[in-house]
Amino acid sequence: MEVMEDKRRYSLWEHYRYTFHHLRKKKGDSALAICAGDMMLSIMLPFLEAALAGIVTACLVNVARMGEVLVRLAGYMILLQLVRFMQSHFRALREKTLFLFRCAMGPELDQKTLEMDGERLESEQGQKKRLEASRNLYTGNDFGIEAFTAGFWDVLIQLGGLAVYGVVVGRYSMMLLSLLVLEALFTAWLHSMAGKKLYKLEEENHKSYQGIQYLRRESIAPGNGKDIRMYRMDQWFLREFQERITKIVSKIDRGEMGVAAAKSAGALLTFGRNLIVYGWLIWEMTLGHLALPVFLFYVGITAGFEAWMNGLFAALQNIYRNREVMDGYRDFMEFGRIEEGRERLRNPGKVHEICLEHLSFCYEGKEETIHDLNVTIRAGEKLALVGLNGAGKTTLIKLICGLYRPTAGRIFLDGQDIQSLQRREVFREFAVVFQDVFAFSFPLVENVSCLASGEEDEKRLRDSLCKAGLWEKAVSLPKGTATAMNKDLDEEGVSLSGGELQKLMLARALYKDAPVVILDEPTAALDPIAESEMYEKYDAMIQEKTGVFISHRLSSTRFCDRILFLDKGRIIEEGSHAELMARGGAYAKLFDLQARYYQKKREEEEIYG
To answer: DSSP letter at 518?
Structure first.
């Protein structure tokens, strides 16, 4: 039984080493240069603005000629405006660069999702970790890796500003500097406590938002409309919507009240500090210790010092907040990582023998689904897997074709352990049609060939569609085989019927022309006659191939060479259809039961038309 893994924690150093490695990899050294330029200009600009009043006063007091005063002030204003323009430009470049960096990280997450171990991804733990990871990239500019990276540069900016302002104030009075630091630290602490509470409430609300997304998705799904209306579930949906929205608003109010209280307390502290600091500076000026220009300069520096300190704690708080999100992202990127096999398949494209040796499998937190199976599927054999729901048939198929990895035991492909083989080579040997047939919202040609349009073999495509009985439908579509399926990506897309989707899956399997064909109840939604016709097509398709069939209708398996009857992950009967019927065991009883059911149904149809 698999043990639930806790989310791995990373240090800030590990996160920033990871982040800046990918920033340079995705956006180049120019990204670092842009961020560094923004940092220097962001430190310089407030200092120049704070000194403006003192510079103007000094010029008016100390320079006799008005022309010289205007020249000096004009030069200073030009410098100030130039720095302001450059800072604004570099900040815009920084925001654009970090936004594009976040976007560039998306394919990494998608690749991980598409290539990771199937069983781990489908598990409850894997789905939870995947959701946490997606928050790092898809929650907006102020959340996740983009905000985390920006926070690093913001901290450097605030530290640089504090260093400059601290040196200026400290040269005049260490006592004044100490007062400013203490007041700013206490104010920042108040905001930090409020911010932590707000972050905790936001995390709690995240779960409520997921619930609302579920309710919204289910309430507008076309297939749910009839049940919602017939059973008056609209009132239930509205009630659930209202309850969750009320909870979210309540937590937002609690968080905002904490922030407002911190702001009020901070404002009172700032007012008291200003009384002391400005009173002191005025007293010093009346004693003749400070000239008016210097007084105005220190007034600006004093006001700016608190802004730098508050900015520092806000940046640190932003880093702390997004560190949790970074933990979730990197934890998922490491989750389910299994060493890839390196051996090459000895007989690619040939008819294979598949051997299961003491095979067992257990889903996360559950009892074993497959128990110590020992089965050999001979090359070219047609094997049927039958049994009641929950017998482990689909799980066994996923193990055989390499989507899942055994908990115990081994699977051999022509004597080679598939765990030692490269997974892509294993996948190439199987054409699998699962029960839930559907078309991707891509052109029909891409759904069949699984290649980008233009890369397909046209003759092979046509042959596959003809054999599947879908060619006439394909050429009748608005854009032929280039017509998009569904309307998710193309408003002119077309939706296929259930039977047409079955033929599409058959065409895909025909186009792949793999030596092993597996059918996992792909015709479950069809009536018995349509299913029988479809299985005849599949039977013709797998001549001189190894075939494995799953069907809940036992009559569809009579053409198979051998039938395995599974119950709770164990083989309880094995043989041909005739042998199992003669034995009179579980298979024969289930077959007779189904036969009586379909006979009764046909009689009723004949009577009632």
So the answer is: E
| Separation of alpha carbons 118 and 183, rounded Å | 55
Identify the residue with better confidence: 147 or 179.
Answer: 147
- State the pairing for strand pair 416-417/408-413: antiparallel
- pLDDT for the residue 526: 61
Give the H or E element holding residue 143. Answer: none
Q: Residues of 438-463 as b/e, b for ≥16 C-beta within 10 angstroms? A: ebeebbbbbbbbeeeeeebeeeebeb
Strands 562-567 and 546-550, by their bridges, are: unpaired
Q: For residue range 154-166, list pLDDT tens digits in order.
A: 989 988 888 887 7
The contacts of residue 173 (CB under 8 Å, 6+ apart) are none
How far apart are the two ends of the chain, measured CA to CA in Å? 53
Per-residue exposure over 509-541, b if at least 16 CB sit within 10 Å of its own CB, e if not: bbbbebbbbbbbbbbeebeeeebeebbeebeeb
pLDDT at 4: 46
CATH architecture of 354-439+496-591: 3-Layer(aba) Sandwich (3.40)
Closest CA to 83 of 48, 50, 116: 48
Domain coordinates in residue numbering, the chain: 12-195+265-333, 354-439+496-591, 442-495
Transcribe 230-283 into DSSP letters: HTTTHHHHHHHHHHHHHHHHHHHHHHHHHHHHHHHHHHHHHHHHHHHHHHHHHH
Please tell me the distance from the alpha carbon of residue 322 to that of residue 324, in angstroms, as a whole number.
Answer: 5
3-state helix, strand, coil in the chain (%, to 5): 65, 10, 25
Torsions phi, psi for 377 (to 5 deg):
-100, 110
Using CA atoms, how far residue 264 sits from 275, 396, 580, in Å, is 17, 64, 82
> How far is the CA of 12 from the CAs of 23, 95, 158, 385, in angstroms?
16, 22, 18, 52
Can you say whether the dihedral through the CA atoms of 303, 309, 315, 318 is positive or negative?
negative
Contact 401, 518 (CB under 8 A): yes
Strand ordering across the sheet containing 516-520: 430-433, 516-520, 546-550, 382-386, 562-567, 570-575
Q: Which two tokens stand for residue 438?
A: 């559907």
The full 3-state SS of 330-362, as one line of letters, equals: HHHHHCCCCCCCCECCCCCCCCCCEEEEEEEEE
Q: pLDDT per residue over 320-342, tens digit each?
A: 888 888 998 999 998 877 777 78
| CB 419, CB 341: distance < 8 Å | yes
In angstroms, rounded to a whole number, what is the distance separating the alpha carbons of residues 606 and 252?
64
Q: What global pTM score does this model have?
A: 0.72
- Separation CA 98–CA 23 (nearest Å): 8
Q: Are strands 382-386 and 562-567 parallel, antiparallel or unpaired?
A: parallel
Size (the chain), residues: 609
Cα–Cα distance for residue pair 549/568, rounded to 1 Å: 18
Q: What is the DSSP letter of 569?
A: T
Strand partners, 37: none
Least confident span in 306-310, 326-330, 511-515? 306-310
- Secondary structure (3-state) at 416: strand
Token reading at 24:
């340079």
Q: Tell whether domain 12-195+265-333 is in CATH 1.10.3720.10.
A: no
